[in-house]
Amino acid sequence: MNSMQIVGEPAAAPTKAQTAIELSATSVTFGRGPTATPALAETNLSIPDGEFLALVGPSGCGKSTILRLVSGLVRPTSGVVVVGGREVAARALRVGMAFQNPTMLPWLTIEQNIMLPLKIVEPFRSQFKKQRKLAFRDKAHALLAQVGLKGFANKFPWQLSGGMLQRANLCRALIHEPRMLLLDEPFGALDQFTKEELWTILQNLWLAHKPTVLLVTHDLREAAFLASRICVMSPRPGRVIDDSAVTFARPRTIKMTFEPEFVALNQRLRDLIVDIRGVESSDDPSDASLEGTS
Ligand SMILES: Nc1ncnc2c1ncn2[C@@H]1O[C@H](COP(=O)(O)OP(=O)(O)O)[C@@H](O)[C@H]1O
Ligand SMILES: [Mg+2]
After folding, report:
1. Ligand 1 pocket list (CB less than 6 A)
2. Crossing angle of the two packed helices 192-209 and 133-146, in degrees rounded to 10
3. Would 271 be classed as within a structural domain?
4. Strand partners for 242
5. Which ligand is closest in space to the CA of residue 186?
6. Cα angle 113-114-115, degrees, rounded to a multiple of 5
7. 205 part of a folded domain
8. Could you tell me the pTM of the whole model?
9. pLDDT tens digits, residue range 203-244?
10. Per-residue pLDDT of the chain (294 residues; tens, 9 = 90+)
11. Do 81 and 69 contact (CB within 8 A), yes or no?
12. What is the domain extent for residue 252?
């Protein structure tokens, strides 16, 4: 499932090295009794403000569950989830929007679609009524220009290609300056070239705005291109079996993805996932043979 979720709080000036997301001894089991599904094993994960974290791992290992924990759509069975300094389960969650493909409202223009979060998420909502509309429109146009969609503001969604819609989708995800972007395989359905274009656009947007990003992806190249840190998860019940920083210089280029160090990182991640899939039947969670290679 491709979806893009935005936790809707506008960017406050972040203090350095603040923790954006913290999972402490967090586990998730769906259902009860004999049909209970342990989806996420006890997990500790700390994500600093402004980090771009990619979560990779085999299908069904709990990646989307982690995104849902962070957005408050799923409650932890044990442990605590803290987002922006507040415990998620302890408050009415301010999930700004949750989008799934197809994502645009067909009766609104691209500009109107992009400005939609501003009409919903406070404090923009009140400002929107107080004639800040023109300033917001400028912001929408600036974002459209950044993703190469200058001049498409007044088109309708059906007049755009799939790749263009995903770009507009990114604009909408960023229009209310969220401090956090939760991306669940957002480029899964696109062809390779469009994908690569969007990686570059997303990288630029991240460099410009520095939101905390949690990206779930099956695409190891995508993870290594975009992320500043990659967590590899084991099959169900998922846990993080490898956690490493990605230190390639930015801005990264598609060309860099064919260089030896980049290829080596992909190979290592791939080996980890292939190995861990192979030991899926083993239920010894202390098997540490896949950890710590670098
Ligand atoms: N609402 C739910 N009820 C029961 N089982 C679920 C529910 N959501 C997810 N699961 C199960 O939990 C596991 C992890 O799911 P998910 O986080 O969606 O995996 P991933 O995103 O890594 O593919 C899967 O085995 C899935 O079938
Ligand atoms: Mg998923």
Report:
1. 30-31, 37, 39, 59-65, 236
2. 130
3. yes
4. 232
5. 2
6. 95
7. yes
8. 0.81
9. 988 998 888 999 999 899 999 999 999 999 999 899 999 999
10. 455 554 444 445 545 468 999 999 999 999 988 889 999 999 999 999 999 999 999 989 999 999 989 988 889 999 999 998 888 865 444 443 444 454 788 999 999 999 988 887 777 777 777 667 788 899 899 889 888 899 999 999 999 988 888 888 888 887 877 888 888 888 877 788 888 988 998 898 899 888 899 999 989 999 999 999 999 999 989 999 999 999 999 999 999 999 999 999 999 999 999 988 875 544 444 433 333 333
11. yes
12. 3-103+175-278
Adjacency order of strands within the sheet including 86-87: 37-48, 19-30, 78-83, 86-87
Which residues does residue 231 pair with via DSSP β-bridges, in sequence order? 55, 243
User: What's the CATH code of the domain at 87?
Assistant: 3.40.50.300
For a substitution probing ligand 1, which of 65, 71, 233 has the most ligand atoms within 8 Å of its CB? 65
Distance (Å, whole) CA 25 – CA 285: 15
Tokens of 130: 């107080």
Residues 6+ apart with CB under 8 A from 126: none
Domains identified in the chain, total number: 1
Q: Which of 29, 55, 64 is the best mutation target for the ligand 1 pocket, counting ligand atoms within 8 Å of the beta carbon and taking the most? A: 64
Range list of H helices, 72-229: 110-120, 124-129, 133-146, 162-174, 192-209, 220-226
In a domain, 182, yes or no: yes
Q: 120 in a domain, yes or no?
A: no
C-alpha to C-alpha distance for 41 and 102, rounded to whole angstroms: 32
